[in-house]
Hints:
CATH superfamily of the largest domain: Type I PLP-dependent aspartate aminotransferase-like (Major domain)
Radius of gyration: 20 Å
Distance between the termini: 27 Å
CATH class of the largest domain: Alpha Beta
Number of strands: 12
CATH topology of the largest domain: Aspartate Aminotransferase, domain 2
Number of domains: 2
Number of helices: 13
Amino acid sequence: MEPRLGGPVSGKSIPPVDYLSWYVPRLKEQRPHDLSQSGFAYDWGVDTDSEKMLNFWTSGQDPAQWVADRYGVETNQVCVAHGACQSISLAILAALPENRPRAVGVEMPSFAVVSQSARLLGCDVIPYHRGPNEGPWTLNRKEILEILPKVGVLAMTPVMNPTGEMISEEDQQWLIEVTRAAGVNIVSDEVYLDAAKGTEFYRPMYELAENSISINSLTKTYGLGPIRFGWMIGAPELIQNAKNAFQNMQGLASAPTVSIAESVFSRLDEALGGIWKAREENLPKLMEVLHHHGIEWNPPPFGIFGAFSIGMDAVDAMARFGKPLGLLATPGGMFHSELKDYLRIAWGGSPESFEAAMPVLSQFLTSIQEGNA
């Protein structure tokens, strides 16, 4: 079920996103103990006025200005789009140099939309890896040097899904240097990175590399996935390319989407505070369960999810032991086949629901360990 890489596709050759094909039906089951949500759960108390939402574009406001003000850039460095998924495709199109191969190097492990969407844009997709290895996972620099002559763009996710770990500063700086020297641009999916704001780990690509486009949205860190509001930040030339692509493929952003985004944008730091609070309250409970089962794991230093080995194929474990218990969590094999024994757990829910899920998770792990004995 890992991302399907390869050459350009169309028609019947378009691959599904196997993770979503697996996950969405199980999400609809509304299992009572849901530890699968990598996005933060936050109640914004949005007060909607239908007429106001529908008429947003008559207000004279520019959503790019909100983004520019929050991130300390100019409006010509910002392109607003419908969520991170649309932004990924637009950013790849914008970042592909005309004089380079129509191919994209994609970091693995990865969410399939990041790694598969380029195929729908007529690109070859070539993998490179960050981990798995002993200790902090590092870039396979040899792989990257080998593929740089073959690609126009490298796509990456600094806060890796499913582990929640941030790329090391050394690897990030090295990647910037070698791509710049090769004439290759970087598309950086940073939907989880704002959880690191105010820490040493907050290193968005747009601040460090002119040959990059950073992608973000209100979905994961800010708990507003249903409205699909996202943006790209980068050098003005690259962002103008993205705006041109957006005009061709979308025209104008949805008025209700940007209207709801406007109602919360000045309050976004509320959610960041909530993430740290959820981490403080929920993560120790998870660590206690894992310690009880002899699972050694160092959680990522920020954010609301991480992944660890459970000793068996996590897809099978969810089917055999998770479903009967009403438990839902995300198998790591959805992101890379080498992580099939990993399970991603998120701790961004309410303290009450998370605490109620811990005995269930413990029983789940007991069933696995007894079966492996």
